[in-house]
Design brief:
The chain contains 13 helices and eight strands. The protein is an alpha/beta fold and about 325 residues long. Among the domains are: about 150 residues, no CATH class; about 70 residues, no CATH class. The strands form two sheets. A four-stranded parallel β-sheet has the order 2-1-5-8. The protein binds iron/sulfur cluster (SF4). The site of iron/sulfur cluster has 13 residues, from helix 3.
């Protein structure tokens, strides 16, 4: 009972994520159907507050409707109905700026787009030539405008989130962005930034050693810069680091770094156990969650307060069952 109320008290504030409306199960697709994604509504949905956006219906197209596709110059394609070839570009382009303006107030920490859509798709969207043949691939009109308007908000396509590595990377970034948003929503102080940087050190290190060093130097000379340039430069470097994927090599480096904190406290047996679990992870016999579970156990056992504060050890809710793939 006590444990339940403790868990309830610790329940994190929901993370706000923009999403293509059809992924939530709403029947807004051209054929009157939806593209419901249960992982997004049921699993990630436990922690997310979604802000749905359907560019085609919101800009005034009916349901059902004739399917559209991208056509013409791959750098600036038109949006055209597939059979009757009616140009819908203007309709979409007139709607986009107002919607982006409204989204500025939504405090989004990420956006999940529906793949393969000429309006919402992020990657490899077919652009047809006037002869009806695929000339190149590009980005859906709304997705492109969104990423240009919000270059630092993490974005991904729902289809790609089925890949465990891409899913983990995206989810880590959105929860990171949520922590960052909380920090910058308050008053910006060098002390606040130092505290943020300290708690996220190992997580940043697991993405990029080089940017980890640069961020450390930036924070150290922070007081000499004004608050705005300091936070802006930090944010830019931070998200450059986070956009680089972690690898088992980078994670092993962090795990060994963590072990250094226990040098004097671990018994020879415990040290051996930890090294052999890290080795099993290196060899691909166990996923990252295994050495991390052991480390979390020792962090509690030896009351390691600096490590306890490290987001690397618990970067997202454990119910999402991440870090458990090979
Ligand atoms: S892919 Fe985008 S435009 Fe198409 S139905 Fe889904 S939300 Fe609407």
């Amino acid at each position: 009972m006590e444990l339940q109320s403790e868990k309830k008290a610790q329940k994190p504030e929901k993370i706000r994520i923009g999403i293509s409306t059809c992924l939530l199960g709403h029947k807004v697709r051209y054929d009157g159907n939806h593209s419901h994604d249960r992982y997004l509504t049921q699993t990630l949905g436990m922690f997310a507050e979604y802000v749905p956006v359907c560019p085609e219906t919101e800009c005034g197209m009916p349901v059902p409707r004739e399917a559209v596709r991208l056509k013409g110059d791959p750098r600036a394609p038109r949006l055209e109905t597939q059979k009757t070839q009616v140009d819908k570009t203007r309709m979409m382009e007139e709607w986009i700026p107002g919607r982006l303006k409204k989204l500025e107030k939504e405090n989004l920490c990420g956006f999940i787009f529906k793949s393969k859509s000429p309006s919402s798709g992020l990657y490899r969207i077919r652009v047809y030539g006037d002869d009806g043949k695929v000339r190149k691939t590009g980005t859906g009109l709304f997705a492109r405008a969104f990423t240009l308007h919000f270059p630092r908000i993490p974005v991904e396509e729902a289809g790609r989130l089925q890949d465990p590595g891409l899913r983990e990377h995206f989810i880590e970034k959105i929860f990171f962005f949520q922590r960052w948003r909380r920090l910058v929503a308050g008053s910006k102080t060098p002390g606040g930034l130092v505290d943020f940087h300290t708690r996220n050190k190992l997580l940043i290190l697991s993405h990029s050693q080089e940017n980890y060093r640069k961020l450390g130097k930036l924070v150290a000379r922070g007081r000499k810069l004004g608050m705005e340039p300091l936070f802006d430069q930090y944010e830019s470097l931070l998200f450059r680091a986070l956009n680089l994927k972690t690898t088992s090599k980078k994670n092993i480096n962090v795990l060994l770094h963590i072990m250094g904190f226990f040098k004097k406290q671990l018994s020879p047996d415990e040290k051996q156990e930890m090294l052999s679990v890290i080795d099993q992870y290196r060899e691909g016999y166990v996923p990252l969650v295994v050495p991390l579970t052991l480390i979390n156990h020792y962090v509690r056992k030896y009351d390691q307060s600096w490590l306890k504060s490290q987001t690397y050890l618990n970067p997202h809710p454990f119910e999402l069952k991440l870090r458990n793939y090979f």
